[in-house]
UniProtKB/TrEMBL annotation, chain A:
PROSITE patterns: ABC_TRANSPORTER_2 (PS50893)
GO molecular function: ATP binding; ATP hydrolysis activity
Residue runs in coiled coils: none
Residues in ABC transporter domain copies: 4-246
UniProt-listed PANTHER family: ABC TRANSPORTER ATP-BINDING PROTEIN, ABC TRANSPORTER, ATP-BINDING PROTEIN
Name under which the protein is recorded: ABC transporter ATP-binding protein
Domain of life: Bacteria
Keyword set, alphabetical order: ATP-binding, Nucleotide-binding, Transport
InterPro entries: AAA+_ATPase (IPR003593), ABC_transporter-like_ATP-bd (IPR003439), ABC_transporter_ATP-binding (IPR050763), P-loop_NTPase (IPR027417)
Length: 323, 274
């Protein structure tokens, strides 16, 4: 059975710009998106900044009315049956806002428990359980304003599990978490997955999507450009290898020159402080190295490696190496 | 039938709890940065300051025998602090905290969510008036020996509820515009002038008097003055009925605005714009 059905979803934002001569600018955040998520499935939504991920999640979470299309959660329409949908879903938008900073963690949870009509007897037991689950045991009585960013995000997770929803929308839940925190968080997601919860996850971390998701959709400019299992998506680029070149202060112009080479499929640059890692996708593999090096034209170069493509490489190819 | 009844009961109990929790927590959220001592001190001293300031100023300008006029007017006016500023902050807090998307994502009853924000301020405001009147008796010798105290108590409660009603409307405006403080201060000073706290209404030009009649507080102050000078409950009952009517009307407008805001925000995607 499908827990989530999105059919031809479209959402436009209108923004008025200018004070005196007001003009209305339209942004097509989601152009035409359709997908289904099966019960108990962990579905990833990937895509560059501004692709329309958060917009899609907001529509699913009943917080935004679509301009066109049909969106159903557990067979219920998110616009017409919004209040019924809300009882079955939980959602988080990454980041630390959305909590009462002057209240303690426990008081925040208490208030949201009452908003979700959780029986007081139930929430009395559930709140300590959830605090422990998200690793905030012993900190619940402190005021949220004294929490670190990661702690606030953990509290959000506890908040969204108060009414034990069977569907979860997690929009960049690990953004800003330290590596250990992010790993612990992924463990929590796996636990939820094993409880047969249906989860929609958006993330910019490809390894995260690769290790967690049953299926992913890559969206770009409000359209789905690929949708499959992570391993199937990797197979898209299995004919390619990735040449990684470590550089120190490479100019964007040089990167463009590499991109224009006939045997190069996609190029992306990853900043690592002083260094930049140039990732070149090419069917030539190691044979492409000399040409890439000559494009770099005598610049100082560190480590050079050739490796198998990952989900990230598949993603880079799909969205055109912009990230 | 039995089942239906139990179900109804449960919904009712749930809504009551939501109302109560919203009440307590929004109040705690607002005042948690005060330590209890600081809070108590401000609660006792703020009315004192207002009473002394306006009573000396007013009776200096108009003569000594009008002391009661200023004490009572300003004591009742204290409700506007909780009613306008307190309630507004309780509602605009959701905007600053970024909690609106999370609130509107719950199936909670919006009316309970909304009116729960005001409830504690009614108690807070009424307490402020009582403290202010006590100062009036201690410092300026306001005489309560002729006063129907339970009718005065009712007057205080009714007036506090009606200013909170206006506060709910102002609070909603704070969700829509960012200039809450400006709007609130303006309303507060309008009340200070037009409610009759410091200016006898019959000295105002007619159009201003009309304006006074659509504000909360005006009739509450008149009622308190009548009662303290020995008037009967029957005399003030019509005033109190209109006073609460006005308050509920503002509160209801606030609620409609709140609902409208939710719908608009979902249409425009403006739920978290600060
Ligand atoms: N409230 C809004 N008003 C106007 N435009 C908006 C609003 N929210 C988003 N947009 C625009 O809609 C487009 C899609 O935004 P969205 O937030 O859905 O992207 P995203 O995929 O979540 O990006 P990111 O990875 O950066 O979070 C962007 O161009 C954005 O500028
Ligand atoms: Mg986003």
């Amino acid at each position: 059975m499908n827990s989530i059905e999105v059919k031809n979803l479209k959402r436009i934002y209108r923004a008025t710009i200018g004070v005196i001569r007001r003009t209305v600018k339209e942004v097509i955040a989601v152009d035409d998106i359709s997908f289904e998520i099966k019960e108990g499935e962990l579905f990833g939504l990937l895509g560059p900044n501004g692709a329309g991920k958060t917009t899609t999640v907001k529509v699913l979470a009943t917080l935004l009315i679509p301009n066109a299309g049909e969106v159903k959660v557990n067979g219920l329409d998110v616009v017409k049956d919004a209040n019924e949908v809300r009882k079955h879903i939980g959602f988080i938008f990454g980041g630390e806002r959305g909590l009462y900073w002057r209240l303690s963690g426990v008081d925040n949870l208490r208030y949201f428990a009452s908003l979700y009509h959780v029986d007081p007897e139930v929430s009395k037991k559930r709140i300590p359980y959830l605090l422990e689950l998200v690793g905030l045991k012993g900190r619940g009585n402190e005021r949220v304003q004294g929490y670190s960013r990661g702690m606030k995000q953990r509290l959000h997770v506890a908040r969204t599990l108060l009414h034990d929803p069977d569907i979860l929308f997690l929009d960049e839940p690990t953004i800003g978490l330290d590596p250990v925190g992010a790993r612990e968080f992924r463990e929590v997601i796996r636990d939820l997955q094993s409880e047969k919860k249906t989860i929609l996850l958006t993330t910019h971390y490809m390894f995260e999507a690769d290790s967690l998701c049953d299926r992913v959709a890559v969206i770009d400019k409000g359209l789905i450009v690929a949708m499959d299992t992570p391993s199937a998506l990797k197979r898209h680029v299995s004919d390619l290898s990735v040449v990684e070149v470590e550089t120190f202060g490479v100019a964007p112009k040089v990167v463009d020159q590499i991109r224009e080479l006939s045997f190069v499929d996609a190029v992306s640059v990853r900043d690592q402080g002083q260094r930049q890692l140039i990732l070149v996708q090419t069917p030539l593999g190691a044979e492409a190295v000399p040409a890439v090096m000559s494009a770099l034209n005598g610049m100082r170069v560190g480590r050079v490696t050739v490796r198998e493509p990952t989900l990230e490489d598949a993603y880079v190819r799909l969205v055109g190496g912009k990230e | 039938m039995q089942v239906w009844k139990r179900c109804e009961m449960k919904i009712f109990a749930n809504n009551l709890r939501l109302f109560w929790q919203g009440t307590v927590l929004s109040y705690v959220a607002l005042f948690a940065w005060f330590r209890p001592v600081t809070y108590a001190a401000s609660k006792v001293l703020m009315p004192l300051a207002q009473i002394i300031f306006f009573t000396y100023l007013g009776s200096y300008a108009t003569g000594k025998d009008s002391v009661d006029f200023y004490v009572i007017g300003n004591a009742i006016q204290i409700t506007a602090v909780s009613g306008i500023f307190g309630v507004t902050f309780s509602i605009s807090g959701d905007r600053w905290n970024g909690t609106l998307p999370y609130l509107f994502g719950t199936p909670a009853n919006r009316m309970m969510m909304f009116f729960g924000r005001a409830f504690m301020h009614i108690i807070d405001g009424a307490l402020g008036v009582v403290i202010a009147l006590t100062w009036g008796a201690l410092l300026f010798g306001v005489d309560f020996s002729q006063t129907n105290l339970s009718a005065l108590g009712l007057t205080i409660l009714v007036t506090t509820i009606s200013t909170c009603g206006l506060g709910l409307l102002m609070g909603c405006l704070s969700l829509i515009t960012a200039n809450v403080m400006f709007v609130n201060n303006t309303v507060y000073f309008l009340l200070l002038i037009f409610s009759g706290a410091n200016v006898a209404l019959d000295t105002l030009p007619p159009w201003m008097q009309t304006f006074s009649q659509v504000l909360p507080l005006t009739r509450g102050i008149a009622s308190a003055r009548t009662l303290i000078s020995g008037g009967s409950f029957a005399e003030v009952a019509p005033l109190l009925i209109s006073e609460i009517g006005i308050g509920l009307l503002y509160g209801w407008l606030g609620y409609l605005l709140f609902k409208w805001f939710e719908i608009q925000a979902k249409r425009n995607g403006s739920l978290e714009t600060v």
